[in-house]
Specification:
Layout lengths: L8 E2 L12 H16 L1 H6 L7 E5 L6 H12 L2 E6 H7 L4 H14 L3 E6 L2 H10 L2 H15 L7 E7 L17 E4 L5 H12 L10 H5 L9 H21 L13 H8 L5
Parallel strand pairs: 2-5, 2-6, 3-4, 4-5
Antiparallel strand pairs: 1-3
Bound molecules: adenosine-5'-triphosphate (ATP).
Keywords: ATP-binding, Cell cycle, Cell division, Nucleotide-binding
GO biological process, one term: cell division
Protein name: Cell division control protein 48 homolog C
Length: about 270
């Protein structure tokens, strides 16, 4: 899976083509975020209110981080990954300044997308610690989201598995105003995800990934499970090819249905 390197600020390599399904979300983000970053003057001229806060919510491993990175890649925007709760642990006592620094850093490399993963963790911490530190951090974050400090070219995407655990203050108008649900894939979407994940792999021409995705054992698989399935099946094919390396038959080296069948039961959704 794509790395979640915290703190670095660069255009990610993750592309839309690497994401299977999720067409509606892609369309919405293209319209309301990517185009605003790519054509800021045009958006302003049309009098469009530029939305700067987005919240992706839905079950784990279904592509929220991948989407955020692909958005940045498509818009040619820098990307900063921040894990919500870690932010607190790392900057205890100076979290307020950390947030200010973060946003001013983002402004210097704008257009820039700041991605806050596990936003729900902030509220849990706030309730658990009940301390000023957490309160200050949340308040500072809200100040930045409200754009009281200049927000030019800085966009924020938050992600959570538990929208019911999000600090309500974040959900008020003008903050994370655009919310998009990233669902668990159904059978057809699972096929699209396997196709996206298999693009660069030596999949045997006899394999129909749409059928693989419909296997009973794949029910309830999320994107991360499908990634593991693809990786394990490829490894199984590789092991077999190594064991039979004396043979020159190149079909031995491709990933076949039997390899998917061998490994699928090892993955529990
Ligand atoms: P979490 O809530 O656990 O942070 P997430 O929703 O952010 O999860 P990602 O980190 O984007 O999910 O996905 C984990 C991995 O699963 C990705 O690196 C990718 O390999 C795979 N994956 C998930 N969804 C998709 C998808 N729709 N298409 C292709 N790969 C996917």
């Amino acid at each position: 899976p794509s790395s979640k390197k915290e703190g670095s600020c660069e255009i990610p390599n993750d592309k839309w083509e690497d994401i299977g399904g999720l067409h509606d979300i892609r369309q919405e983000l293209e319209r309301s975020l990517i185009n605003c970053i790519k054509y800021p003057e045009h958006s302003k001229r049309c009098g469009r209110a530029i939305e700067t806060g987005f919240l992706l919510f839905g079950p784990k491993g279904c592509g929220k981080t991948s989407i955020a990175k692909a958005v940045a890649n498509e818009a040619r925007a820098n990307f900063i990954y921040i894990q919500g709760p870690e932010l607190l642990d790392k900057y205890v006592g100076e979290s307020e300044r950390a947030i200010r620094t973060l946003f001013s850093r983002a402004r210097t490399c704008s257009p820039c997308i700041i991605f806050f993963d596990e936003m729900d963790g902030l509220r849990e911490k706030r309730e658990f610690q009940k301390g000023r530190v957490v309160q200050q951090l949340v308040t500072q974050l809200l100040t930045e989201l409200d754009g009281r400090n200049k927000r030019d070219g800085v966009f924020v995407i938050g992600a959570t598995n538990r929208i019911d655990h999000i600090d309500e203050a974040f959900l008020r108008p003008g903050r994370f105003c655009k919310r998009l649900y990233v669902p668990l894939p159904g059978p057809d979407e699972r096929g699209m995800i396997l196709k996206a994940l298999g693009k660069e792999r030596p999949i045997d021409p006899t394999v129909n990934l749409i059928d693989i995705a419909k296997m009973e054992a794949c029910e309830n698989f999320n994107g991360a499970d499908l990634y593991h399935l693809m990786r394990e099946a490829t490894l199984a094919a590789l092991d077999e090819a190594i064991a039979n390396s004396s043979t020159s038959d190149t079909s031995q080296r491709t990933v076949k249905v039997k390899h998917f069948e061998q490994v699928v039961t090892k993955i529990s959704p």
